[in-house]
Amino acid sequence: MISSVRGEVLAIHLDHAVIEVGGVGLAVRTTPATLAELHRGEQARLWTTLVVREDSLTLFGFATAPGKELFELVQSVSGVGPKIALALLAVLDPDDLRRALSTGDTAALCRAPGIGKKGAERLVLELKDKVGTAGSSATPVNGGRGPANGSAGGTAWQPQVTEALIGLGFTVRQADDAVAAVVATDDDAVAAGDVGVLLRRSLALLGRTK
What we know:
Shape: globular
Strand order of the largest sheet: 1-2-3-5-4
Helix content: 40-55%
Number of helices: 10
Distance between the termini: 36 Å
Strand content: 15-25%
Oligomer: single chain
Order of helices and strands: EEEHEEHHHHHHHHH
Mean pLDDT: 82
């Protein structure tokens, strides 16, 4: 089991980063919020869990140990795999997810793509007494500096954000509508084309409208 990785960030993509460990570049899938904290060419440490399938080995990484623990815990519920677990942590940070599970906030859980009312109720039923209480668990992976996904310029970021949203489980229509709403804000983040910020903003819009 690979419990954590630490090394230079070689590349940052929409759904994963490549981190060099011992001369080997490891592709680590993670959330938009974690990707936004990474910087190419700088050191980073991620808490990781390896998901083994017959035809694949996929490494998932998180900025904090609680994020990793929740990723593993929610998969103990029938019908919840790594894709849905990652979507939950993309929409809700670890404290918010823990709070939603412990208080029975199914509406918050339903914000994640792939989670319907029955699935949310099952998550609460099985995990309510296992998640503990929410507390501060945020530990910057790069010293707390700003987003690192870089500027795409103009609206060239739109297809990248749309593709990432679809990859998280949203429909093409939902992704297009969210991106269009973000474009309509016409602020500095849109002008700069900061993919990490704009992806998180699109996720927030989808969470409110789902």
